[in-house]
Amino acid sequence: MKELDRMAGKPGMRAVNLGDTIGGRDYVFEPEFAPVLARCEELGYPLVFHNMNTDPFGKRPAGPGLDAAFTHAILGAKFIGSGTLDKYPKLEIVLPHAGGAFPYCAGRVEHFMYHMGANAGRTTPPHTFKEYLRRFHYDYLTYRPEGLRFLIDLVGADRIVVGTDSFNAKDIEYPSAVVEQFNFQAVDRDRILKGNAMRLLHL
């Protein structure tokens, strides 16, 4: 909190980058972290998460591509199920890596949270699952046009922001490559490549 207050309002300060866990703890959802979430909401700083557990599947070739995917799925579901999104209705959250597995698993999460959960006596979230999905922002790093199309159909082009893994991924030559594969209307293309991020960061 002290560091957040020190940096608040300084030139170039537009967002807060956080790890999904610290030492295996879900610190974001602990009561001690609530003042930080409230302060970020007050300042209008979006939270940008990145996975910290870099080897959850052991030393296997597929591990680097899957760690973020499942980390973000769990994180997104916890933001909804814990009531955090309801407590901070203006808090902006970015799930990179196109939200990982979260968008693809959304139907399953919704079923268990709204139907199975109700049968088990758990409180059903007050908003529709679609509304919660649109509370997040997602970058477009699906690496496949089919994945990006699914994400846009699910949450809308206005929730997709520019992203890049180009510092370590050799199969994307430039950040907008996956977007260029679509025949987007000019308004949607401009939103995804520039407008959405500018709005999110108050630029």
Describe this protein's structure.
The protein is α/β, with parallel strands linked by helices. It has a single domain, classed as Alpha-Beta Barrel (TIM Barrel). 45% of the residues lie in helices and 8% in strands. It has a five-stranded parallel beta sheet with strand order 1-2-3-4-5. α3 (63-81) runs parallel beside α5. The radius of gyration is 17 Å and the shape is globular. The two termini are 24 Å apart.
Mean pLDDT: 87
Number of strands: 5
The general outline is: globular
For this structure, the CATH topology is TIM Barrel
Descriptive key words:
alpha/beta; 9 helices; 5-stranded parallel sheet; TIM Barrel; 5 strands; 45% helix; 203 residues
Task: Give a topology summary.
Layout: H1 2-7, E1 16-19, H2 34-43, E2 47-50, H3 63-81, H4 84-87, E3 93-95, H5 102-119, H6 129-133, E4 136-139, H7 145-155, E5 160-161, H8 177-180, H9 186-200
Parallel strand pairs: 1-2, 2-3, 3-4, 4-5
Helix pairs in contact: 3-5
Quick take:
Helix content is 45%, strand content 8%.
